[in-house]
What we know:
Elements: E1 21-26, H1 27-39, E2 45-46, E3 48-49, H2 51-55, H3 59-69, E4 73-76, H4 79-88, E5 93-96, H5 105-110, E6 114-117, H6 120-133, E7 138-142, H7 154-157, E8 170-175, H8 187-202, E9 208-209, E10 226-227, E11 250-262, E12 267-268, E13 274-275, E14 280-285, E15 301-302, E16 311-314, E17 317-320, E18 330-333, E19 347-351, H9 357-363, H10 368-373, E20 380-384
Parallel strand pairs: 1-20, 2-10, 3-4, 4-5, 5-6, 6-7, 7-8, 8-9, 13-15
Antiparallel strand pairs: 1-11, 11-14, 11-19, 12-13, 14-18, 16-17
Helix pairs in contact: 1-3, 3-4
Amino acid sequence: MTQLSFQTNAEGGIPEQAAGGILHIDLDALAANWRILRDNAGGAETAAVVKANAYGIGIEKAVPALGKAGCRTFFVAHLSEAIRVRAVAPDATIYVLNGLFPGTCPTYAAFDLRPVLGSFEEIEEWAGFCRAQNRRLKAAIHVDTGMNRLGLTVPQGLTLTDRAELGDFETALVMSHFVSAEESDNPLNRQQIEAFQAVRVSLPGIPASLANSSGIFLKDKPHFDLARPGYALYGGNPTPDRDNPMRPVAGLEARIVQLRWVEAHHTVGYNGRWLAQDRRRIATISVGYADGYPRASSARGSSGEELLAGMALVAGRPCSFAGNVSMDLITVDVTDVPEAQVKRGDTVILIGGDLTIDEVGRRAGTIGYEILTNLGPRYARLYRGGEG
Length: 388
């Protein structure tokens, strides 16, 4: 008898044979995507946004693979994420996007991390810490050009040169963030570029950063000194009005637990929201919303109807979900798949092929970002590539 060996680690150490879902992650594709973005960034340094556990694929795997490809600068959302990045990238430049929490300056200094300062209060606290330490530590300053979320206002940004606190630390970067760069014709893009350019001119000699994944591809080429792609690194389409230039990085399979025939006029799943109009064959797969697969992908209606709902590729054929996505299970209508081609224990594809992360998001009424960042810890994670 073979005994499975279980582990617990940051990437998820569940044996493939015991996992309800299997997440395939192609680190070579991740590195290739970074190079594509670098080559389109007009000579600007190209960083990598690895927040949310590198968009669900794992900081400890993604960062070294990106580093080997040539990436030297990383952005995260939280201080805890930055410390994880530092552990695997001892020489990298690391920025923390979500601002400076009160009392955290010593941790930034201890791990050589750079806060992104978005208010005068944060600037004052960082400057005061630097004065007390007699060290000109580095930080970025965030100026809000339209998001109305984090950052100094543009008028505040234009007064930065009048503030004495800027002499107490080194402003290594001034940055802003696009509101709608994925909408290439949105006039707000041009307004933000012009506002950011005004702030940049008022701070001569300081490197500037505006372009996210989609911003890299805008016709105005707002690359400045540093581009900060995120979603596109992981295979998301930065140009929704055109073909996706990126390679897929994440693929998801789920294992079939059981197959059964459901007779005509019977329902499937919680609350009986899906009705079999005729005799249907149903596969139950071992993934659900507890694994991060969205409940909004549920199929509610009747067999044979065109429903905007989740799908699986079963023996290469697209098959619609049947009924509500539940916590640990999803039911799939596999009637059109020959019985000999699908059996208990087989895996079906939930992300892969035509079921791109953008398409999976669309079918759930959300975006691919949410699909990626919700990928849960119960999957067996199988990495390939990333060795050089």
